[in-house]
Amino acid sequence: MSVNLSQVIFSYDTSRKARLSGEYYLKVDNLNIKDTNEFIAIVGHTGSGKSTLTHLLNRLLIPQKGKLVVDEKEVTKRTKLLPIRKKVGLVFQFPEYQIFEDTVLKDVSFGPKNFKLDNPETLAIEAMETLGIADLKDRNPFTLSGGQMRKVAIAGILASKPDILVLDEPTVGLDSASKEELLEFLKYLNEVKHISIVLITHDMEVVTKYCRRAIVLKKGNILYDGDSLELFRDEKLVEDAHLDYPHLTKIMIELKKKYNLDIDPYKYDAASAFSELEKALIGGKHE
Amino acid sequence: MAIIKVQDLKFEYQDIKNAIGGVSLEIEEGEFVCIVGHNGSGKSTLAKLLCGLLVPTSGHIYIDGCELKAELENEENDMLRRRIGIVFQNPDNQFVGVTVKDDIAFGLENRQIERNEIIKRIDEYSRLVGMDKFLDRSPESLSGGEKQRVAIAGILACDTDIIILDEATSMLDPKGVREVLSVISNLKHKKTIINITHNLNEMVLADKVIVMNEGLITASGDVKTILENEELLKEANLVIPDTIKLLNMIRDSKISEDVEDEVCQLIFHR
Q1: pLDDT greater than 90 at residue B236
Q2: Could you tell me which of A6, A29, A54 has the C-alpha nearest to residue A196?
Q3: Interhelix angle for B144-157 vs B100-110, to 10°?
Q4: Claim to verify: residue B2 and residue B76 sit in the same structural domain
Q5: Which of A118, B160, B173, B241 has the most Cβ atoms closer than 10 angstroms to its Cβ?
Q6: Does the beta carbon of B251 lie under 8 angstroms from any beta carbon of chain A?
Q7: Does B64 share its domain with B166?
Q8: Do B53 and B7 fall within a single domain?
Q9: Cβ contact A270:A251 at 8 Å
Q10: Residue B143 included in any domain
């Protein structure tokens, strides 16, 4: 299974004037996302079209031009959307926007019920167990903390067994330990359950530590679609797309410059950055 | 004199006892303070108590020596609250205008500021946060980060003595964060700033970092002391940043102190 967008043009302004002027909010020539083994970061400045792009992936938004192909079938006006929404599950930026039942269990079961899956409650409990929130099942989701609410929203999507899980800035507002826990969980879903993960983020550490592929957007255009680590070697691209380097990389780049070191500054964890410095500064001898 | 003084402050929600379990603190005028802590540690609750959005269960809050009391219909209280502006994490919670322009004007109109001055400030602050070309746009046509910038402009335009930012930059892109941080740095020591954040770049700007855990203040000090205290960070459910890990590795190695100092300076900008 894969999702493919080709020659897509989308605009929020549907007036004749906008149409004639050729202005658009997002343009995608070709984008393919597979249902397994993908861990993709969508990055770009505020208003670059990141959320819009994810909403196009499961037909929450309908483009003015272009094709959406899911499972090798083109999605048309006649295509039933429910199966597509089941395949591509979307977790919004603010989880409270997709929670509405009065208990966590009811809320998480809503998806599988809606998609007419067998034993929706069992699926819901399974998803809640995976996320470690089974003990919250009778709680009112609106009395939970932000982090817990986000887990409920994710469980709700996960319970429907999506092939691709799309998350809009899932780590915003989480403390560093909860953030790490959530990302490790997504990694587990990706590696063990073989669910493809697509996430929007402004956090460059998330891009380098967890994602394999990065899609960079600028003003509604895809500037880059490729390896998430290689991305940072392109200084012009980083600047052009208003991105930033991970903190560690910034320090390594500065040290390389200041001490004229023969090092590769593009190391994304403390241990490999240190070993790079150690090699250059004391010739690899370390007691 | 401390512009904010809090004495043995307690607050409980219906289902959370000790959301704030007895907090005392003093913040000097012009001080830049960061509050860090795990989700649910009481940071946002404390912020809401400080600006009078929540009423404490017990304890006292003094703004510039005057006590912020619980009575809602109190003119004096109103005056105290007007000295504090707060930017929330989710901009939808404070977007009230039909357009960007209206939204920035809202707080100013409430303060009965003269029309020409309102127009001037809308122009100035929308430019400052890079939203001057969006003045007639409606909130639903803006992205999360754009709305956040409008919220920040709206609060800055009110020119309050105290500004509380509750993870106000969490939805911004890196360039947006840099821009807002530069605005905030320019206000440093001119305004009293309380910044609730998980972001290291913001912590290093602070004169003082306060760590909260389970509704209590567990530590307070300069950013370097706090970030280098592994025990404390773990206890507060915070992960040690990679940069600090690197610094510790350099410290324990034979790499020269000169490099160590340089890394230290790069991390803490000092």
Answers
A1: no
A2: A54
A3: 30
A4: yes
A5: B173
A6: no
A7: yes
A8: yes
A9: no
A10: yes
Q: Are residues B73 and B6 in the same domain?
A: yes
- CB-nearest to B176 from A46, A178, A282 is A46
B262 close to A (CB below 8 A) = yes
Tell me if B210 sits within 8 A of B220, measured CB to CB. Answer: yes
- Digit-coded pLDDT (tens) for B79-114: 888 899 999 888 888 888 899 999 999 999 988 999
DSSP bridge partners of B36: B211
Same domain, B18 and B152: no
Q: Are residues B17 and B76 in the same domain?
A: yes
Distance, CA of B8 to CA of A153 (rounded, Å): 37
* Distance separating alpha carbons of residues B101 and B122, to the nearest angstrom: 7
Residue B270 placed within a domain:
no
Domain that holds residue B3: 1-83+162-171+190-223
- The minimal CB distance from A147 to the residues B39, B174, B250 is found for B39
Task: Mean pLDDT check: name the lowest of A184-188, B86-90, B175-179.
Answer: B175-179
For the question of an ipTM over 0.90, the answer is: no
Domain A2-244 has CATH 3.40.190.10: no
- Any idea where the domains of chain A sit in the sequence? 2-244, 245-287
Task: Find the range with the poorest average confidence among A86-90, B15-19, B44-48, B124-128.
Answer: B15-19
Clarify whether residues B128 and B216 are in a common domain. Answer: no
The tens digit of pLDDT for each residue in A28-65 reads 999 999 988 899 999 999 889 999 999 999 899 999 99
Is residue B251, in this structure, part of any structural domain at all? no
Residue in the structure block whose two tokens are 């499972």: A71
**CB within 8 Å: A47 and B142:** yes
Look at residue B166 and give its three-state secondary structure.
strand
Nearest to B254 among A242, A248, A282 (CB): A282
Q: Which of chain B's residues have a Cβ under 8 Å away from the Cβ of A247?
A: 200-201, 241-243, 267
Number of domains present in the structure of chain B? 2
Question: Contact, A74 vs A21, CB < 8 A?
Answer: no
Q: Is residue B238 part of a domain?
A: no
pTM of the model: 0.85
Residue A93 and residue B171: Cβ atoms within 8 Å? Answer: yes
Rounded to the nearest angstrom, the minimum Cα separation between A91 and chain B is 15
